Amino acid sequence: MKIQSSVLVHLGYGKYVRSDQVTAVIPVDEDRGPGRRTFVHMQGQTEPIVASRAEDTLIRDLVQEPREVIQSRQQQEILQDLLSELGNVNATVRRISRDEGGLDLERLERRIRQVLED
Fold this sequence. Notes:
By secondary structure, the chain is of the alpha+beta class. It folds into two domains: about 10-65, no CATH class; about 65-115. Helix content is about 45%, strand content about 20%. It contains four helices and five strands. A hairpin with a 6-residue loop joins strand 4 (about 40) and strand 5 (about 50). The two termini are about 30 Å apart. The mean pLDDT is about 90.
């Protein structure tokens, strides 16, 4: 697993750190409780930051792609699939969907292509 570069990781209670500056994540053993779950050691700092989130969730955020990236990739894949399927719709069905249903498949295809090109 590789630590993400320059991703802000939420420690809880409004605290954030850059993922590539974290050097260690250690669970709090003594006096562990709400607001005090994990010590996060940072590059260049002698004292750790106390995080309110558990060490396993912090590590997951440090090494995983952000949800937004995952969701974006999934959305792009869905749009690619939709564009591919729209290419199989014949002219008669396209005309009926436009004239009777108000769904212009050609316009929809153009918009999907524009989104995928950006």
